[in-house]
Amino acid sequence: MGNKPKSKSKSKADRKERRSAELDEISLLNEWIESQKPDSGSNPLALKPLPDNAPVGRLHDGSFSAYSAATKFSELPLSKKTMDALKKAGYVKMTEIQRASLPHALCGRDVLGAAKTGSGKTLAFVIPVVEKLHKERWGPEDGVGSIIISPTRELAGQLFDVLKTVGKFHNFSAGLLIGGRKDVEMEKERVNELNILVCTPGRLLQHMDETPNFECSQLQILVLDEADRILDVGFKKSLNAIVSQLPKHRQTMLFSATQTKSVQDLARLSLKDPEYISVHEKAESATPSRLQQTAMTVPLDQKLDMLWSFVKAHLNSKILVFLSTCKQVKFVYEAFKKLRPGIPLKCLHGRMKQERRINIYSQFCEQRSVLFCTDVAARGLDFNKAVDWVVQADCPDDVASYIHRVGRTARYLSGGRSVLFLTPSEMKMIDKLKAAKVPIQVIKPNMKRLQPVSGLLSSLLVKHSELQELAAKAFIRYMRCIHIQKDKDVFEVKELPIDKFAASMGLPLTPNIRFVKKLKGKQLSVGESSVLELETSGGEPPAEIKRQKAETNKLREENLDLPAELLSLNDSEDEDVEKDLLLSKQTENKKKLKINIHRPVGTRVVFDEQGNTLPPLARVAGANNDDDLSLLDKDKRNEYYKKMREELMKVDKVDKVLDRQRRRDKRIKEKVKRKRGLGDEEEGSDEDLSGSGADEGTNGRKPKRSKIYFNSDSDDDGETRGKKESAIDDSISLAEQEALALKLLDAMHQ
Ligand SMILES: Nc1ncnc2c1ncn2[C@@H]1O[C@H](COP(=O)(O)OP(=O)(O)OP(=O)(O)O)[C@@H](O)[C@H]1O
């Protein structure tokens, strides 16, 4: 007790000493920064790097070292707290974008930074944010000093983590403000105490509109990560509303791998003589050099076969698969999960609850698995353990989108591979990519190794009625997505094999879609006039609204936090799909002979009353109900599926016996091989593949090696050849599965 006053005064003295040391440090840093400022417009990368062990900071003669030529963080005028945090996190040498932009940013200049994906842009803006507030001695009572805006919630979360790392020894308060969180009321109470906000535009605007006394008038730094995305049309209104509430006198930094140079955009942000820092502008490629990029032509109706084959061939990889809509992600994920490829599957899209999204994101960071996603995962995300493959199963909207998607692999110093599936009509994308310095190699897939999955999907859709609806919605959304794409050189609904595509998804009939019907009509009467014109003349919303709506749809797919007025534009999206589903029930009266060549091998071709060939399930539906459309009438459809399920159960019993026999034979074969000492390279039993969550290495055996069918796949080395051959067993089992599915279908037709 007696010591208490003493220790109190000691700690007070300590604090005073610390404060004075901090003030000394700040004044030294300011002096250093001011005296060695790089010239405006200069490129620090052009300077000769400081020699190793050169003195740093104040030199003997009272001058300061030239931090513009720094190559290590320790050579920069940074506070000890920041330096310690960087050291603790293992950051020593700077990347090019950090070397080029930090000297300008640290002396308070506006910066437009562009550098390839995975090149370390985050530290290039987080360090100046922390340093600026530190030098201003920002405290809780000063309110919001910095705002970092990200287009997606996941990316905002990741930026927040980097901020926590760099600010570890500082005393600022920081908050992550993103949509989808329930604790908005709690946020409202505390937001005014936060010094640094990491947020998505929608949530920030919500606080600006709804939170009493929300104040940004003292803002020192504004950062837009993925700036081109935030500045584009989808965010235009919200960003304008945000910027109008911020003080003009501030430092602004914009970063992206695909930077905007639009004067208009920059004017909106009131940038002052910004430093345009584009470290890779003269590089041979716009993408990381360690990234191997391939593309292949895949007819739309074989896309799922190809994707399935790819997944089956890379069971030991971490794969990110991009699809263009939430509905497709849901469908492909649910369907493939039921088919049990032998690797954990996950999905991520904007319609998922926030907690689930966070869980999936962190699981994918840790685990070898396949993540099916929309462009919600295209930008900025740095998945902890390297992603081996980025598969773009659907063509990206544009070159920028391509660059961001493939940028999820080959980050920092690691390598990675990507493959882009293009339908024959989308092949013009290759020229656009090449023109933008994307070194992509077009390869031919080995079609012999293609594992068809459409037959299996047909039978899945019979067994699981919810999948039928999902497939139909996915189909409709995909068509709409292509329809509203801006780039008509690449995306053209008219060029797509619509019926075959529907059949490839296992759909018994092609759902009718209003605009496709119109397009068909137009093809007959109007010729090649613009799609939007046609839509407008058909009494639909004018082109500008459609474009906005399209952009909003896209953002919703990415689950960006949109303000209410934008969301209202899009509220009808599900309704539209429902309407299209309803329309599917209406008969097309045109008596045109259409041969549906996409049918499982070995099934008879049967025509409906309009002369269309029908996939087997539709035919069964017709046979059962004397009406092709009965399949799309809800009650009749349920009744039909009930009947089919009963049929399936009967056939299943027979199949199970056959399957058990086959597995037993296989086990015996393996046992014999092992006994002969040849068993080492054998793949696991079918049980190893028995679930989408199946783990590798069970039974203490080596994990099953992937089967390679892509020419470019350098997994295909000598070492794996023996293992590849062992994977033939697997294709046999798939062929058998396919045969079983066909048998089922046949049984139903009888
Ligand atoms: N100086 C550095 N030393 C070591 N690792 C670094 C350094 N800078 C960044 N990294 C690491 O590099 C990876 C990519 O960094 P970051 O996410 O900032 O890239 P990016 O340029 O923002 O990519 P994208 O354009 O995709 O958003 C991260 O894992 C990060 O920790």
From TrEMBL:
Asked if ATP-binding is a keyword of the record, the answer is: yes
One of its Pfam families is CTE_SPB4
Q: Where is this motif: Q motif?
A: 71-99
What SMART domains does the database record attribute to this sequence?
Answer: DEXDc (SM00487), DUF4217 (SM01178), HELICc (SM00490)
Highest taxon above the source species: Eukaryota
All copies of the DEAD-box RNA helicase Q domain together span: 71-99
Q: Which GO terms describe its molecular function?
A: ATP binding; hydrolase activity; RNA binding; RNA helicase activity
Region Disordered, annotated ranges: 1-22, 669-732
Which key words are in the record?
A: ATP-binding, Helicase, Hydrolase, Nucleotide-binding, RNA-binding
Q: Does the keyword Flavoprotein apply?
A: no
Q: Where do the Helicase C-terminal domain residues begin and end?
A: 299-451
- Reported EC number(s) for this entry are 3.6.4.13
Comp. bias (Basic and acidic residues): 11-22
What reaction gets catalysed by this protein?
ATP + H2O = ADP + phosphate + H(+)
- Start-end of Basic residues biased regions: 1-10
Q: Which PANTHER family match?
A: RNA HELICASE
Q: Report the domain remarks.
A: The Q motif is unique to and characteristic of the DEAD box family of RNA helicases and controls ATP binding and hydrolysis.
Q: Which family does it belong to?
A: Belongs to the DEAD box helicase family.
- What is the protein's name according to its record? ATP-dependent RNA helicase
Q: Which organism is it from?
A: Linum tenue
